[in-house]
Specification:
Layout: E1 26-29, E2 33-36, E3 43-45, E4 50-52
Antiparallel strand pairs: 1-2, 2-3, 3-4
Length: 67
């Protein structure tokens, strides 16, 4: 996981909605072993960063904290 996108390397917290048109990506899939959006073919890596496809942005990391 990318240290810039995770607070705790044991967990990845992202909003599971493709940034292209709002479909739900499939986990542990795609060309980069992260997330694959079956609607239009966007591929995200295991940190939720867009790597291929029409999605314009990485998967969103919402505000969160670990207690």
């Amino acid at each position: 996981h990318d240290d810039q996108r995770v607070q705790n390397p044991n967990w990845l917290v992202v909003i599971g909605v493709c940034t292209h048109l709002g479909c739900v990506p499939i986990a542990n899939a795609g060309d980069f072993g992260g997330y694959y959006c079956p609607c239009h073919g966007s591929h995200y890596d295991s940190s939720g960063r867009i790597r291929k496809g029409p999605a314009p942005f990485n998967l969103e990391v919402p505000p969160h904290s670990f207690v």
